[in-house]
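User: Can you help me understand a structure? I only have the sequence.
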Amino acid sequence: NFTGTLSDFHHLYEENNDWLFGHFSYVSQTEKEKEKTHDGFDNIFFFQPQAVLILKKNILTIETINHSPEDVFHAILQQENISLKINNDQKINIRANIEKEEYISIIQQLRKNIHRGDCYEINFCIQFFAENYSLDPLETFKNLLAVSPNPFSCLYKNEHNFLICASPERFLQKEGKQIISQPIKGTARRDLQNKRNDALQKKLLSESRKEQSENVMAVDLARNDLSRFCEEGSVQVSELFGIYSFPQVYQMISTVEGIVPVNINLADIIDAAFPMASMTGAPKKKVMELIRQYEKTNRGIFSGTVGYITPKKNFDFNVVIRSIVYNAKTKSLSFPVGGGITWLSEPEKEYEECVLKASAIMKILGYRLPYLIL
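Assistant: Let's start by predicting it. Here is the structure, written out as tokens:
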């Protein structure tokens, strides 16, 4: 296991020739701290797995350190379904650390910041949380995927802290010399009961000036971040304003790609590009100051990144959103949500978007906010 600073990680990346799995918390770069974040996760944590299972097109490949792949496969077949005995009569009380009225007031203030030129776009988050509640992380993860299956999901454990993540967003992927980033900005609620209205929502999202302005700012930031370490002239936008379908929502996703020099170190890439453009804003330094000023809690692993590094130094990392952070020791959980704020933002609609993004998690927890229809 590894935990330490980014400079320490630089040596780990250079010296390791095996798989590594782990995370970078948002705080690891913004606060420059070595201590654990408020949610209990280390700022930076990576581990070398005992076994790696790769499933592609119905073909399972098993790589192991101390056991034969055959033994691991037979152990999987013999494994019984493990679940914790949780009291199903529990009542969960979910609260927000910023209530609706205060949220609207903060968005109005952020629009003033934008109007006077402090920034152009800022990602602002609120946190829903509950205390004294026990959950089974594995069952919760399976339930979350059933409601909201997404391509960058993960169930991740660091001591007694769990990340139950159904992320739709990729931060960075490196394959050989090519690196890509795929910022998401732009969300529309789907209507699966009415195909005509569902198609209309998709069309409105694709044509929305407000959503396009959010997206293009994230794209410009990603281009700037990648240009700091990619070969000169290699950074380009291969897709702009793509509309992708998910079970709950439509998302506007763009793809920025570039060519990295030989022997590029992941620590240098993280130093240049993290935190990601879609979870900060423009200009990045100023909006990170505003985030610290207006958000009520440090983000921790939320809006950080979880991923893996292959023995060939390729890697793939997500953006930690649409996630439950659960502390099994204190029996507390939280799930922050947010969105990009621009001058065109309407505070009431921004709040509705936050609730929409939280709805899948609230659904599996069996909770409805008393003053909102989800």
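Now, to help you interpret it: The CA atoms of residues 263 and 313 lie 9 Å apart. The longest helix spans residues 209-227. Let me know which part you'd like to focus on.
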